[in-house]
Amino acid sequence: MGKPNETSHSLPHEGTVPRRRRITREVRVGDLVIGGTYPIVLQSMCATPTADIEATVAQCQLLAEAGARLVRVAVDGPRDLAALPQIAERSPVPLAVDLQENYKLAEKVATWVKKIRYNPGHLHHHERNIPWEDKVRWLADVAAKHGCALRVGVNCGSIDPAIRERFPHEDSVGLMLASASAHCEVLERHGFTNYVVSLKDSDPVRVVQANLRFAREWPDVPLHLGVTEAGLPPEGIEKTKRALIPLLRLGIGETIRVSLTLPAARKSEEIAAAKEILAEAELASEVAPEDLEPPAESKAVAGLNLISCPGCSRVENATFVALAEQVREITRYAAHLPLTIAVMGCRVNGPGETDDADLGLWCGPNYVNLKRRGQLIGRFSYETILSEVKRQLDLLIAELGGNSLQENRS
Ligand code: SF4
């Protein structure tokens, strides 16, 4: 990689980048640099089972050909671990790894990847007697020993319970910010600076709020931007644009990922969407920071909000994407109503990420769990889940009052 230019106004281009960029520290991800005056890094994540080496290498190639410069894979256990060396050797771009609850896997994957993403909200699941700060220092030491970067990947749906207690439930921006800041403080005090941060929410307004506030408090730390569970295209692209374009116009964001619910064969559309977003951000006029001051009440999506995860190695049934599409179809008659329906691909994040939805579905291998406003209703087969969703939706509509529904149908 060539030496970057000296000013933020004459960036080395690899495609379109916003006109104006803040300058953060440089974070080294193998030969790739995130931050500084380097181009914004486009990245994505494999939706193939990591243990399936051929499928995952092909997925890395697909994403790299589309323009991804970093690809993330999930590693959850021995079969994924066994596949990782071959995937790393054959991938045309460096790998990042996504760790969930078992942070100890970092030690086993660090040889093969250039970046390790951990979720602060998942560090408490194992070894509860060890303070989370010690776990972060241990992760930093592993990363430093192997020359890896870290990502502190904060997600609104899985905040550390110790931090959750300190904020009202509805203040998800405050929660995310407090979590990210606490981890930055530990890493900085430990002398580890080769890290980026992400603060993701499914609500684009909250993504803007959280990243704007973080950028003010930690201006030197590169930000990975994204909207979690943005959902199916084209709605998921529009939702992501509403978050990323205002931030990019302000020069905030050193790497981006557009999370779309897509089958593995179409994952390159995430990179195409990211390019589209960068192009629009560059063409857009400047926005003053005060224009982005948060509204008192964030309601980013008018009418029914369908959120769904992008899928990854952990998806438990191959029909997950089709299920999300079917849910979109059968709920169109309620598109004008202020309801949220969440569709998640696995049991790892499904239960937590559906807590705030009016109806939440998450996939198991042979059944779909259904939750209504935080309460589990039951498990349904893939053949019967849609009729149950429809039944529950009608009940919710009846609670809201049927007038608006009648108006929409007439
Ligand atoms: Fe992967 Fe599960 Fe997250 Fe979906 S909810 S992206 S399947 S970890």
Describe this structure in words.
This protein is an alpha/beta fold and 410 residues long. The chain is built from 13 helices and 15 strands. Helix 6 runs parallel beside helix 7 (204-217), helix 7 (204-217) runs parallel beside helix 8 (235-249) and helix 8 (235-249) packs across helix 9 (268-283). The N and C termini lie far apart (60 Å). The model is unreliable at 1-17 and 406-410 (pLDDT under 50). Bound molecules: iron/sulfur cluster (SF4). Residues 309-312, 314-315, 344-346, 348-350 line the site of iron/sulfur cluster.
Lay out the secondary structure.
Layout lengths: L25 E4 L2 E4 L5 E5 L7 H14 L3 E5 L3 H13 L4 E4 L7 H4 L5 E4 L13 H15 L2 E7 L5 H4 L7 H18 L5 E6 L3 H14 L6 E2 L9 H15 L5 E2 L11 H16 L21 E4 L11 H11 L9 E5 L5 H4 L5 E5 L3 E6 L2 E7 L3 H16 L2 H7 L1
Parallel strand pairs: 3-4, 3-10, 4-5, 5-6, 6-7, 7-8, 9-10, 11-12, 12-13
Antiparallel strand pairs: 1-2, 13-14, 14-15
Helix pairs in contact: 1-2, 1-9, 6-7, 7-8, 8-9
The site of iron/sulfur cluster has 12 residues, from loops.
